[in-house]
Every structure is written in structure tokens, then in C-alpha cells.
Write a structure and sequence with these properties.
Elements: H1 14-38, E1 44-48, E2 51-54, H2 55-71, E3 76-79, E4 90-98, H3 100-105, E5 111-118, E6 121-129, E7 134-139, E8 144-146, E9 149-151, E10 163-166, H4 176-189, E11 192-194, H5 199-207, E12 213-217, H6 221-233, E13 237-239, E14 252-256, H7 261-272
Parallel strand pairs: 3-4, 10-11, 10-12
Antiparallel strand pairs: 1-2, 4-5, 5-6, 6-7, 7-8, 8-9, 12-14, 13-14
Length: about 280
């Protein structure tokens, strides 16, 4: 099932593009799934402190970029592994393997994230969680879907009834005290905190009601672009730590189920405002 979205943006048929991107994500997901069966840690490269990459990330990105260039030839690219970097009117924002550390260690949560951006706004997003064979997707103003079924955020209105997702700092510890203060409060006043290990999956789990709010800093556009659109189209909210709209390139994000928006955004803002 695909979104019944008839509008076209500058003659670009988003429905048609979405169908092709979903097919591509699943195709590359098959490659990732196959490689996981025989993957060896000695093929891991170190990009920086706790920042890992493998031939699977690089090959996946190459496959995705080649096919996206055919799907929308005039689009530019913002990608994690620098296969191609060129900013245009339309831009593909791609993470070929979000959750690389999970993948390397055999922990089953890692995803392909593909978004299409137009003039600073995300208009299409696909997140394929490979290990669980779950494909989340959305078109701007068209709703959010998981494997063909429409999804929406949870209805929980109180932090005390909520489950929170986050990502731990792995190399930028400059705001660690602010982060730990936030985490301490949430541990004491919610159902718990989950560190899933892939921001794209965190956002999609929020979109379908599995968790109720999410925050993380030191993120890149490819980590959040597709997932944030899916959250919004599922009825949720997205902002940065200053309660503003610079979440795509601002390296920080807060997402909620809407009901928790004011309380959760204020909690993060108060703890990070001096950082």
C-alpha cells in the first residue's frame, strides 16, 4: 500500500518516487542482511573515537546513490560516507547503515535512511529497519506508514506513563553533564529510557507509538532527516534543544508524541540552555 498523495511538486511525482525508493531500500537491505551472516570484525575501519565504518556501509551507500541518481537525476546528495557530495535544489540525504555499531556487533537494530529535501524542507522519507524487515515511510502531508499500515504517535500525556528513547554521547562529551542531568530526571520520572543505537529507528519507533519522546545531540542530517518527517506525519513534533526549527543541520533533536511536547521540550531546554 502506498500513500494516496496526488499533489506534485514542480512536476516531481512523489508517489512514484516513493515506490522506487522503498524498493531500493529493501534491495540494499537484502545485501546488508546477507553480509551480516558472514561479517567479520577484522573488516571494520575506525573513522574516529567510537566512530566505526565497514565495507558494508560504503558499498550500501554506493548502491543507493547510483540508483537515486536514476530515480531523480537532477537531485544533489548529502551522504554519510562521501560517495557523492553536491548540493542542488532537491537533495537526497542518505544514511546507508544507521546503527553501524549494532550491525558490527550483531545487535539487530540497524536501518537504511533515505530522505528527499527541497529548499530546506524534507518532503519524502523512508527508513528500512533491516533486521526486523520494517519499512517506515512518509510523504509531506500524506501521513506516515509502516509496511503499508498507517501509523500514529502514542496518546500518552504524562511523562510518568511514558517510555523515552535517546542516544548516548560516544565522542563529543562537551555537554555530558547537561545530558546526564536530563537522563537522571527521566530515569526517576518515566517508565524508563531506551538506547536503541540508531536515531532513524528511534524516530520511527516514536512515530508508531513504541516510545513517546526522543532526544539526542551530536547528530548529522542523515541520522534524522527521514525519521523526523515520519514523526511529523504521524502526528508528532520535532525541534532542536532551543525549541526552534534547526534540527536538521543543528546536530540536536527533540521529538515527542505532541501531548508531551511542552513538558519534554522544556525539560531538555532547561538542562541544556547553558551548554
Amino acid at each position: 500500500m502506498f500513500i494516496n498523495f496526488t499533489a506534485k511538486m514542480e512536476s516531481v511525482d512523489l508517489n512514484n518516487i516513493l515506490e522506487k525508493v522503498i524498493f531500493l531500500a529493501k534491495e540494499v537491505g537484502d545485501f546488508i542482511r546477507h553480509e551480516r551472516e558472514t561479517f567479520s570484525y577484522n573488516r571494520v575501519e575506525i573513522k574516529g573515537l567510537n566512530d566505526l565504518v565497514s565495507y558494508v556501509d560504503k558499498t550500501s551507500e554506493k548502491l543507493i546513490v547510483e540508483k537515486l541518481a536514476i530515480i531523480l537525476p537532477d537531485a544533489g546528495f548529502i551522504v554519510e560516507e562521501d560517495t557523492k557530495s553536491e548540493i542542488k535544489n532537491y537533495n537526497w540525504i542518505v544514511d546507508p547503515l544507521d546503527g553501524t555499531t549494532n550491525f558490527i556487533h550483531g545487535i539487530p537494530c540497524y536501518a537504511i535512511s533515505i530522505a528527499l529535501e527541497l529548499n530546506g524542507k524534507i518532503i519524502l522519507g523512508v527508513v528500512y529497519e533491516v533486521a526486523q524487515n520494517e519499512c517506515f515511510y512518509a510523504i509531506k502531508n500524506g501521513g506516515a506508514f509502516l509496511n503499508g499500515a498507517k501509523i500514529k504517535v502514542s496518546e500518552r500525556k504524562n511523562l510518568s506513563d511514558s517510555l523515552i528513547a535517546t542516544g548516548f554521547p560516544i565522542y563529543n562529551f562537551s555537554r555530558l553533564e547537561n545530558y546526564m542531568n536530563t537522563l537522571t530526571y527521566l530515569m526517576k520520572h518515566t517508565h524508563g529510557v531506551r538506547r536503541i543505537g540508531a536515531a532513524a529507528a528511534d524516530l520511527c519507533y516514536l512515530a508508531c507509538g513504541r516510545v513517546d519522546a526522543f532526544f539526542e545531540y551530536n547528530l548529522n542530517p542523515w541520522d534524522v532527516a527521514a525519521g523526523a518527517l515520519i514523526v511529523k506525519e504521524a502526528g508528532g513534533t520535532v525541534c532542536d534543544f532551543s525549541k526552534s526549527d534547526n534540527w536538521l543541520f543543528g546536530k540536536e533533536i527533540i521529538a515527542t508524541n505532541y501531548h508531551l511536547q511542552n513538558r519534554f521540550e522544556s525539560l531538555v531546554y532547561d538542562n541544556f540552555k547553558n551548554s
